[in-house]
Every structure is written in C-alpha cells, then in structure tokens.
Amino acid sequence: MTIYPYGLCVAGAAALALLLAAYIMKKAALKPGTLSWFALLAVPLGVIFARAGYCLCMLDWFSYAGIASAFRLNEGGFILYGALLGGFIALALTAKITRQPLGRLADTLAAPAALMIALCRLAEPLVNEGYGWTLEYWFQEGSGMSSFTLADASFFKQFPFGMQNAWGEWMWAVYLIEAVIALVICGMLLRLKDRTHGGKAALFLLLYAAMQALCESLRQDSVLTWGFVRCNQVFSALAVALVLVICCVRLRKACLLSWLGVIASMAVVMAMEFALEKKILFLNWMNMDLCYLVMGLACLGIILSVRPAWRRAFPRV
User: Fold this and answer.
1) Angle between helices 102-122 and 80-98 (to 10 degrees)
2) Domain span at residue 128?
C-alpha cells in the first residue's frame, strides 16, 4: 500500500474537524454516539460521491477509458461538492438513526466542515494544485493582466503570495486565499449566536459557494470544465440557489428582491469570465485584476442579496 503525504493531510484534517465537531456536539448536548454514526457513514459516502462528482465532470474521459477506471480510486480525481453531498446524506441518515433534528445536527458540523476545507486547501501544493496565473508576466506592461507594472516582481515570488508549480514557475497562491476564506467562515460560524435549526449550515453553504465562484475563476490548475464552463462555478450557483429556495420555503414567500440580486450578481460574474478572455469588445479595456475585483464584488453581492431572506428564515433563538 502506498501512502501519500496529501492523503495523510486530508486524513489529519478530517480528524481535527471531528474533534471540533465533538466539542460542539458536547456543548449542544446531543445524544451519545451521534458523532460516531456520522463518521462511520460520512467516510465512505464522502469518497463515493466525491468520486461520482468527478466522473460526472469527466464523462468524455471515462467513456473513453472505460467504466472500470471510475473505480480506481488510487488514480485520483475527486470533487469537493460531491464530498459535501456525501457528508449531508450521512448526516441525514445519522439524524434518522439517532432520532434528532437534521437541522440541529447540520449546524454542529458547519464550522468543522469549513475547518476541514481550509486544512485540505493548505495541503494542495503537495499535489501541484491550488495555483493561479503566472507571476512572470502578471506585472509586465502590455500583458493585460495587471493595472500596475513592476520591473521586478520578485517580492511576490515567495510565500504567502506565490507558489512554484511542478515546472518551477512562480504562480499566484490561490490555495492560500481559499484556505483563509474557509477559516474566516469557520470563525464566523463559531461566533454566530444560535438560530433556528439549519441556520448555520445554510449560512456555511451560502458563504462558501458564493466565494468559491471567484476562487474557481482564479485557479489555473487542473480545473474541471464542461466545454468553456467551469464545473465548480455551476455547482456554486446551484448551491446558492438551493439556500435561497430553502429560505423561500421556510418563509412561504418568493423573496423576489433576493432572487433579482442573485441573478444580477451571477450575471456580472459570467460577464467578467468572458471579459477575462477578451470576448466582450466593450470591456476589452479591463485588465484581469480589475475583472477579478468586479467579480469579487459580485460574489459579495450574492451574499448580501440572500442575507435578508436568510435572517428572516432562520431567526435567533
């Protein structure tokens, strides 16, 4: 059996997340054995759905390589949203087995999930993932990348700004941005005062999905795509829509202003994706850093659009 450093890091991240979950569940006075049931179910289901999500994004490859290749887990290929789906199914089964409210259990695991994501992101350089655009040309005049020019960009060719890929090129360290975002989400969830069951879990999904739309665009590694569309951006949009649908169902109203804000913000994200590739003529004057700035503001717009509906749907208790 071959043991990989990245696999050890993921296992360690899961262990620390479970320790945090144990502490939160103890404070919440959940039934004994709740965490054991969840861990027992979440490990296999998380792996299965993470792999299934990857296969869904790589249908052309697996149709060529054969269905048997989908079961060769040692060859890699997983997707985080699939793991989250597997974890949620494990959570639903745990709630049924232990006869406890699903929303209450989900709230106790929201912060640990964010912590695990952060720790796994920090390990991504071990598998040559998590990098963005090259720093070699980013600040060059006429490159169309940065609004600022630098004769010497060596200051950024070091931690925490840059990382070296497998070919020794210095790239932006996107993995660190994602890790910091996940840690901030974890801290917010830990400090958040108690709300109606499911409120923390819904907030976690909203914050993570909205910001992942930006982070996925920043990535220039082995990004999964359907044609020119990035798979994780599609999943992020669906996750945000799911949170808003849940809020609408709980409030028994359409929340039209929230929907309009989300749709408009997502439209801006899409427009900036095309602007990055210079496919919108009247936006060709925008350098890439300005496109990313606008995209980041649009992602914040998604969060601010859903927040009022979320606050009403999950009031403080």
Assistant:
1) 150
2) 5-30+100-313
